[in-house]
Design a protein that fits this description.
With about 190 residues, the protein is an alpha+beta fold. The protein contains five helices and eight strands, in the order E-E-H-H-E-E-H-E-H-E-H-E-E. The protein has an eight-stranded mixed sheet. The radius of gyration is 16 Å and the shape is globular. It starts with a strand and ends in a 7-residue tail after the last strand.
């Protein structure tokens, strides 16, 4: 699927396609570092986490690649498992809102990042809709920093709704929101 940038300075066309993220981990973490403001120590911790996630049954990844093959965005996720660390952290928050059933039979979007130069061009939307269109689960869940942001606005347009707010992950400086959506995701114009 080609994403054609519109408006603003001309940037290369980007194609969303499956990638072997484990072989492109350095590029992916560089995109995440720039998009999310990560330091070197955090990047090294995340390197091991990403490798471990990609070994999970049903894990899949997509990349947004320029014609030159540069990775400018990525998404990966997997079928949710209540025994995974993320689920054990968010479960009490979801239980309080009566939403803990979302942890079952859901595909979790583990990471979704687009390099800031390429943001606002439909790449994030293409990544998340393409990955969720290919899964067997009837719904998707994710966590996002609990502030009004372009990412949260995108998730809402795609059908995600807040399931729990002010979720605190150990060592994360900001609280998160857990969001869920039935699949397939909505398409906006």
């Amino acid at each position: 699927m080609a994403v054609h940038p519109g408006g603003g300075p001309r940037i290369p066309d980007v194609v969303v396609q499956p990638v072997d993220l484990s072989t492109r981990i350095d590029e992916a973490l560089q995109v995440q570092a720039v998009a999310f403001g990560l330091g070197r120590d955090e990047i090294e911790v995340r390197r091991h986490i990403v490798h471990r996630h990609l070994l999970q049954p049903g894990a899949r990844a997509l990349g947004a690649l320029t014609a030159e093959g540069d990775l400018v965005g990525f998404v990966y996720g997997m079928p949710n498992d209540r025994r995974h660390w993320w689920s054990t952290v968010v479960e009490p928050y979801l239980r309080r809102t009566g939403s803990d059933g979302w942890l079952d039979d859901s595909f979790v979007i583990t990471e979704l990042h687009v390099h800031p130069v390429f943001q606002g061009r439909g790449i994030g939307r293409s990544l998340i809709t393409t990955i969720t269109d290919a899964v067997d689960q009837p719904r998707s869940i994710l966590s996002a920093i609990d502030v009004e942001s372009p990412a949260r606005a995108l998730y809402r347009r795609l059908g995600y709704r807040d399931l729990a707010l002010q979720v605190h992950f150990p060592s994360a400086p900001s609280p998160y929101a857990v969001m869920g959506a039935p699949l397939p995701l909505l398409r906006d114009n």
